[in-house]
Design a protein that fits this description.
Helix content: 25-40%
Distance between the termini: 31 Å
Largest sheet: 6 strands, antiparallel
Strand content: 15-25%
Radius of gyration: 18 Å
Number of strands: 9
Amino acid sequence: MGKKNPPAAGRASGASPERPAAAATGDARLASDAPRRNRILAALPEADYQRLLPALEPFPLPQGWAVHGAGRRQTHLYFITRGVVSRSCLTEEGKGVEFSTTGSEGVVGVTLCLGGGSTSSQAEVIVEGFSFRLAADLLLRELGAHGPLMELLLRYTQSLMDEAGQIGACSRHHSLQHRLCRWLLSLHDRSDDERLPVTHDTIAQMLGVRREGVTQAVGKLHAQGLIDCQRGHIDMLDREGLEAQACECYAVIRQAHECLAEAGGSQRLLRRSR
């Protein structure tokens, strides 16, 4: 998938220099999203949410756009309200593997919360969506108050660490078929649709495998009636069947996110199993 890297960072009146070209018009349905579609913002006490609200900038997430690149300074924290962002690590040859996905349950830019300005990983939009972003200086000011937002973000960071560790073990010890089922289910959890706009090339890039292997694995699931694969998208037909074939890593990662949400008094983060 081609990258759509934004120009150099900077702040000016009017359109942000980081803003993707798609933001000029935008999707009216996405732009109408309320900030509290994001589960972290939804979990904030009313007073804290209202104080933060004027600083939240509506921001579109077109498919293929790099929210941040490896080594690039991060200037904003993105609260996702719709869509899916993938985090991955790349080699010098451009090969890589995904280690976490984020939808409306979380944020992109947690490095800022830990005192860092950049990271060796990249974050790319794989399902078009929308977000509300908070500038780094305003975020640090809010975190300095040591209020509920800091606690929620630290709790979410813990869930990302759990997810990255589990995916590392999954990549080493489980078959491509099992990993593919896990990945499709995780993407489906964070999507509003039964149709996932992904290609074999995208899946191969995210799982760090050859495209030919993905084509074979997808074909098996298609033959079993679990998915319908067409050019440019995959339709989820039998979620329970996919769950039965996924490795235990899917349930472990999902439970980690849900437990942290319950500890913070938030609503359920991901869609329910069917």
